[in-house]
Amino acid sequence: MTIEDYPFAADGLLIWTAIKQWSRGLRGPLLSRPLRRDEIRNKGHADKRKEPWWPALNTPEDLVGILTIMIWVAAGHHAAVNFGQYHYAGYFPNRPTIVRSRMPVEDGNERDLKRFWEKPERTLMENFPTQIQATRVMAVLDVLSAHSIDEEYIGDLPSAIWDDDLTIKAAYERFRGTLTEIEGIIDERNQDRNLKNRCGAGVVPYELLKPFSKPGVTGMGVPNSISI
């Protein structure tokens, strides 16, 4: 890896690799059935079916790549950018959602600029959101960042519809085991003092790509798909 101490990339590659192995386990059973190549492209996105960027679907490995991308985007990638919103932006100075006036240096107003240099924190406080504005944003971010009680995570209990397909069931059990191992690897990384972006004084452990979570705002957990 180019940057070892890059938590999103390091943990993301673990999840990506696990998803790819799971997709490869599905390849045989899926290809043993009629493959409807035109389903997503020609029916689901008929207005875009002639675009040149559609991935090729000519070999079994093409199918693995497509499945991996689809699962990763809806599961791992979304979890990493979504479920940490409250932890980061719930404290509004980290990411104010509104600035109530222009900064003095932008207007060229000498009086306001002089007032700014005399006491910069006063101008900063005047520009921050009001209490009611900040509270509303906190409430929205709390909802966006929370896992529901019935959230379904990748590697969770297998679907009953797979009980009759031993090949898929075995592949999923391997996938589930790998995700459990990934939880442990992420915990170990978060205790490694050589990784300054995830361990140390004042540094929040990076847990956004830990596969499983309890309900609520936990800052971890990778659901099966995007859910709001």
UniProtKB/TrEMBL annotation:
The keyword Manganese does not apply. Residues 1-228 form the Lipoxygenase domain. It comes from the Eukaryota. InterPro entries: LipOase (IPR000907), LipOase_C (IPR013819), LipOase_C_sf (IPR036226). The keyword Metal-binding applies. Keywords: Dioxygenase, Metal-binding, Oxidoreductase. Pfam families: Lipoxygenase. This is Lipoxygenase domain-containing protein. It comes from Spirodela intermedia (Intermediate duckweed). The lineage of its organism: Eukaryota, Viridiplantae, Streptophyta, Embryophyta, Tracheophyta.
